[in-house]
Amino acid sequence: MMFIKSLLSRTVPYARCFSWTAPSVLQTGDILRQTRVFSNEDVIEYSKVSHDSNPLHFDAESARNAGFEDRVVHGMLVAALFPRIIASHFPGAVYVSQSLHFKSPVYIGEEVLGEVQAIGIRENKKRYIAKFATKCFKKGDLLIIDGEAMAILPTLAVEKIHQMD
């Protein structure tokens, strides 16, 4: 918990960061974050659901032969942090779109910080359409995924994070 609090207290130019205890109202520039470590079991379970059995995810030698240091976590599994962050703060949100640019691999056991920043919000029929800049980092500030997402939010009230393990 202390690690998460330290991440939230990082200074980010032109952006507010939420504490875990104070519900707030989402505004343009706000950043929501969560961390995750992807395990071997996560990779196996994702492979079962997605039917992605690429040897890069299961065989260290195949991964090294392809130029990686070790087995690679599925990029789409890492990118699943974005809807997780949004849904945990806005129950009932509808994820509408996502663009992704994969910059660097994630290896099993590495901690990843997922971040969504509100870059546009508009009201539409008592709901809100929010556009987010989406980023994942590892090893502090190494950008691993970059993109944008759109979601329909039932409210702009930011709820305390619910653990979704």
Secondary structure layout plus pairing:
Elements: H1 2-8, E1 24-25, E2 31-37, H2 40-50, H3 60-65, H4 75-79, H5 81-89, E3 94-102, E4 111-124, E5 127-138, E6 142-153, E7 157-158
Antiparallel strand pairs: 1-7, 2-4, 3-6, 4-5, 5-6
Organism: Hevea brasiliensis
InterPro entries: HotDog_dom_sf, MaoC-like_dom, UPF0336/Enoyl-CoA_hydratase
Domain MaoC-like: 33-126
CATH level 4 superfamily: Hotdog Thioesterase
Strand content bin: 35-45%
Taken from the alpha-carbon principal axes, the silhouette is elongated
Quaternary structure of the protein: single chain
Strand order of the largest sheet: 2-4-5-6-3
End-to-end C-alpha gap: 15 Å
Give a quick account of the main beta sheet: strands, pairing sense, barrel closure.
Answer: 5 strands, antiparallel
**Averaged pLDDT:** 86
- Give the CATH level 1 class: Alpha Beta
Q: List the secondary-structure elements in sequence, H or E.
A: HEEHHHHEEEEE
Strands, total number: 7
CA radius of gyration = 17 Å
Fold-level CATH name: Thiol Ester Dehydrase, Chain A
The CATH architecture assignment turns out to be: Roll
What structural category arises from helix and sheet content?
A: alpha+beta
